[in-house]
Amino acid sequence: MTDLFLIGSATDVMLERLAAQFTIHRIGDMDDPQAWLAEHGDKITYVGTNGHDGLKPAYMDAMPNLKAISCYGVGYDAIDTSAAKAKGIVVTHTPNVLNAEVATTTVLLMLACYRELLRDDAYVRAGRWETDGNSALTRSADNQTVGILGLGRIGQAIADKLAPWGTKIVYHSRSEKDVDYTYYGDLVEMARDVDTLVCITPGGAATNKIVNTDVINALGPQGTLINVSRGSVVDEAAMIAALQDGRLGWAGLDVFEGEPHVPEALRKLDNVVLLPHVGSATHDTRAAMGALTVDNLLQHLKDGTVISPVPECADM
Ligand code: NAP
Ligand code: 8YV
Question: Percent helix, strand and coil across the chain, each rounded to 5?
């Protein structure tokens, strides 16, 4: 049997399919993974991991015969793809199969912010409807201008899902796309012109804190910030300060800088909706992501090719 090093969680179906072809070594079962790899690393030829945990450079170095890393997720900023490619290791991920789910999560966060879903749920539970009468009015989510930061696969799915709300879509990315939406080369300028800014770029150095104080101030007191990309994309301290002093109106967040840690100051605010990075976390979508994660490994085992390499490894 071929040896697979498995990082993070996997569904039962994934484990069953993997166990039929691989001897699985789960990092979660190891007291000291680095010490385990020092002894056994040379027999590992495949790694299964996810977008959060990635693969530590020291672990990659300790697996001299590694052939492929399969990432259970589309984002792979926690994997050093340049180092992998230089060693001849192909990296795969799970694009497209989660587009619709992450778009649904985005719309969910946006609607929850606009219609004060959490406030009004708490109002009913506290019995205040009976004692205090109707709760305060909210903002309509109809006919808003939404700026998408990163109009890629998921960004386009978000734009599609917002169409029934009469949304005007504009976007910012490094390059202009062949679409009918207005393109902004300047993120601050776009933030100034929109009601809601949706972040859905990859994480990593190129997007680190690109939603900074200037962008947040431009979005303004009536603005809503939705982040479903990576916590690193938004300057979290600047965002919290702006939410506290009213320079930013609302935030709907699925991702955080130091997740699973969410700053106490953010948890105390009532103009935020907070989710524990569940953008793609439904049984159906995780099944599709899991199937692609395993399919990539099994295909490589069979004939040395993969189905969905990350762009950097597409020519390998
Ligand atoms: P994608 O198709 O590659 O789209 C990414 C978009 O971001 C592209 O339009 C790209 O356009 C733009 N972009 C990249 N770097 C940029 C930069 N420095 N400045 C501005 N725009 C930039 O990726 P996807 O499949 O839509 O996934 C996007 C990301 O969503 C993932 O990488 C992951 O971080 C996140 N995600 C989160 C969850 C969740 O559970 N919350 C789930 C899935 C994915 P240009 O190249 O023209 O700039
Ligand atoms: C998952 C994600 O949380 O695909 C991504 O980039 O962030 C999410 O779908 C994660 O990768 C699954 O482990």
Answer: 40, 20, 40
The hierarchical CATH code for the domain 99-274 is 3.40.50.720
Query: What is the pTM for the complete model shown?
Result: 0.98
Which residues are catalytic, by number? 230, 259, 277
**Ligand 2 close to Cβ of residue 50 (< 6 A):** yes
- Rounded distance from Cα 144 to ligand 1 centre (Å): 22
Q: What is the pLDDT of residues 88-112, one digit of tens each?
A: 999 999 999 999 999 999 999 999 9
Phi, psi of 21 (to 5 degrees): -120, -20
Tell me 54's DSSP state: -
Please tell me the CATH superfamily of domain 2-97+284-313, with its number: NAD(P)-binding Rossmann-like Domain (3.40.50.720)
Going from N- to C-terminal start, the domains of the chain cover: 2-97+284-313, 99-274
